Amino acid sequence: MTDGFRLPPPSTAQDFDAESFAPLYTTTVTVSGGTARHGRASGRARSADGVLDLELGMPAELGGDGRGTNPEQLFAAGFATCFHGTLSLVARHAAFDPAAISVEVTVALGRDPGDIGYLLRVDLVVRWPGVDPEAAAPLLAKADSLCPYAKMARRGTPTTLTLSS
Fold first, then answer.
1. For the segment 101-118, what is each residue's pLDDT rounded down to a tens digit?
2. 32-47 burial by CB neighbour count: b if 16+ within 10 A, else e?
3. pTM above 0.85, yes or no
4. Which pick of 6, 15, 128, 139 has the fewest CB atoms within 10 Å?
5. Which CATH architecture is the domain 70-165 placed in?
């Protein structure tokens, strides 16, 4: 199941005892502007370690050619990955098999009615075939309270959490 990858122990509480934020991992991604001198429209995103190296582009819906990755896709991928990992950890801790879990995150970019800027809206759908929704509900709630992306979203990005079979 893990193909040589060692999963973390099924703990959600015992591995932190500091009184303040202590980084466990830090990464840096640099975006350059490309030919349009606008990272969103024609830039490139590169991580300091070189593992991430993506051409960025404006979605066709926003007037671009739609060929490059955009910030909403990157945010959706990060959120889905983080929530999936957190829910898998919570599920294993509660003696549930997380193998069938999938997490779908939809990110919508729209105008902020309060100013001239933009807002993101996040819709998170968890699919967990074969698991009773009543049994899954407290696990989803715990994952939502622990996931760093969900915490970030709660502090300013409207988010919905839906369980779908």
1. 999 999 999 999 999 999
2. eebeeeebbbbbbbbe
3. no
4. 6
5. 2-Layer Sandwich (3.30)
Boundaries of CATH 3.30.300.20 in the chain? 70-165
Which CATH fold would you assign to the domain 15-69?
A: N-terminal domain of TfIIb (2.20.25)
Euclidean distance between CA atoms 21 and 7, whole angstroms: 23
Tokens 């819906």: give the residue: 61
Residues in the chain: 165
Mean pLDDT score of the chain: 86
What does the block give as tokens for 129?
């075939």
Amino acid at 128: W
Q: State both tokens at 19.
A: 């009184």
Q: Contacts for 54-58 with beta carbons within 8 Å, 24 or more apart?
A: 56/31
